[in-house]
Amino acid sequence: MCMSKIVLSVCFSLLVSVTLNAQKIRRKNFGEYSGTIAPFELVIDTVSVKVAGAPIVVHFEKELHLFSQTIGDSQLTGTWEITKKTTAIIYLKVAFPGNIFEQYELYITDKKMVRNGMYPQPNTQLMKH
Question: How far is CA 22 from the centre of its chain?
Fold first, then answer.
């Protein structure tokens, strides 16, 4: 009786592990998202610098986990991975060259993505085209 509980427990653990690692994003959620990073203020010591808003375009691909981000005239290409998934939101970690990491939230049903800005940048909502 005790051995069957252990076997059942191990099987359940393996099933949960495989299910969590098999998280997928539907094809309809990939593509191009765009928005505008709001203007913000950067304070260095006692000097305050106003940073103007900038357009941002993100191209999110399934193949090779590619993620391309264009802010103004600057473009970065990196890779993405799922860090957490709920029924409504998929949390992504995007790695760019030079050990730059950014966090994104992909809203599955709303066709939107939120870029979590690095301080002092504000979070930015992006809509799918």
Answer: 17
